[in-house]
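Per-record layout

source: Thermocoleostomius sinensis A174
name: NAD-binding protein
length: 584
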Amino acid sequence: MNEPTSNGSANFLSYMKPRIIVCGLGRTGYKVYSLLKLQGATVIGINDRPLPHLEADIAANTVLIGDFCSAPILLAAGIRDAQTLVLASNNDAVNLAALTQARVLNPHIRIINRLFNDSLGDRLDHILPGHFSMSVAALSAPVFAFAALGNRAIGQLRLFNQTWPIREEYIDEDHPWLGRKLSELWEERSRMLIYYLPAYMQMDLVSAVLSGRHLEYGDRLIIATQPRNHSARRTVRQQMLNLLVGLRYFQQHIRPTILVTIVLLLTILIATVTYTAASAHVSVIDALYFSVGMITGAGGGEEVAEMAPADIKVFTVLMMLVGAAVIGIFYALLNDLILGTRFQEFWNTARVPHRNHYIICGLGGVGVQVLQQLHANGCEIVVIEHDPNNRFLNVARALKVPVIIGDAKVATTLQTARVGGAAALLSVTSDDVINLEIALSVKGLAPRIPVIVRSQDPQFANLAQQVFDFEAVLSPVELAAPSFAAAALGGRVLGNGMTADILWVALSTLITPAHPFCGKRIQDVAIDTDLVPLYLETKRQTTHGWNLLEVELTPGDVLYLTMPATHLEQLWRTQGATLPVQMS
């Protein structure tokens, strides 16, 4: 079959109508495209140029090559019959152009839009129905933060106005939960059971809990743990110590200013003494007044020099030249000290904690999101950024986080950030090589400090973690792509994860009179559809735990649940009607 084009693929797509179109098959887009195919979704990809990893999909007519902002390409991909469009390009302007063209061709299509600009995404979400903006940085940052806090998270779940870290527990022969009843884990409020994969038989989590099943060797259990805020208040003694250390650091930069100031004062003193000695009629105050005015250029008291002998006038000329040079240097140094970066560096250094703080190297899209996550958890943070004009510096300073402008690969910069006493360091610049070099520099200075490294390449991330023994090497694409795929399959999600190639999602669904779950007990629904109920919101109360299983769903209830992405159609498959999935 020929490669599909804007004209040649109409016959093929006439009998294969894709439900989901993914535009922009870079790292993120192709990962989303692959995950959707893995879950059995009918998906068509569009990319602006052929790439080696796309050859098989191009040959299979599941990927089109062309400008996905153009109407012919979108029509060839089946935009009129598609249910969802995923815009996964890393260019906000291109995604916006594709959004407008797609909505003209299909006004009702759901759009999952990858946008770096959060404020723009929020506005579009409120203005356009069926538009959901997502950010790779925002989706991956919580996992970086959880790793720094000591949680080996595979994802995150937004519940009760908190972001819960999600991790997978593989039950081996040494696991403390081996042989423990699932019902015991179900009862604990600080932990939520998300998904269960038994090793030797198929059984949903609710059935396993109700039947009193014990965890066996090889079982997999996905859980979410309630986050804990880290309160870190410095004592007065620590603050004074920090101030003294900052002054010591400031001392090396203030020395030239002090020396020039001494020279300036000596120049004024010499001129004052000379004028006083040359004329008995000139008082010390008048001589001082004229000397300062002459040297600073302000003028005043000129009669002191006008009535003086010729040699004093020559001395005055020399003092004017020397004074102009000295006062120029003095003003330059003073301006750099007060209005330049020196005072800011002193203030930041004075505020750097001595221990139990978190160092973020690189204040880019991921870095600023990690900063906000850790700050929300009550952690003390220090930022190292090499660009003094970084656009996110004001965000850090607004949060009163000290920022050190310097190269994080250099030992002196890391020592200024007091890496030896840090709780963890996150190297999250956009350059993988720089991240690796920073991490190795830290290991050389403080081998026991946990280091979390950002890597664009998922394969390199796994290898680097094994070879260099870092705490975690994380790829934002790997962390964020499942959220895009889950959103494409069933609305905006509360959380998601991958277990044994199964994509599961957490979301909330509004129970309407036409909903397939309406009038049924949650226990029965959970067993029939392999979902895990998290909690239920009604007009009167919030229900979770054992009581949740016996509740009968009625219109107006909002059920928070997790389920495999392949089962999401059960939420809206009813008498030909499309049921609402509540957005969070």
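summary: Confidence is low (pLDDT under 50) at residues 1-18, 573-584. The longest strand covers residues 162-170.
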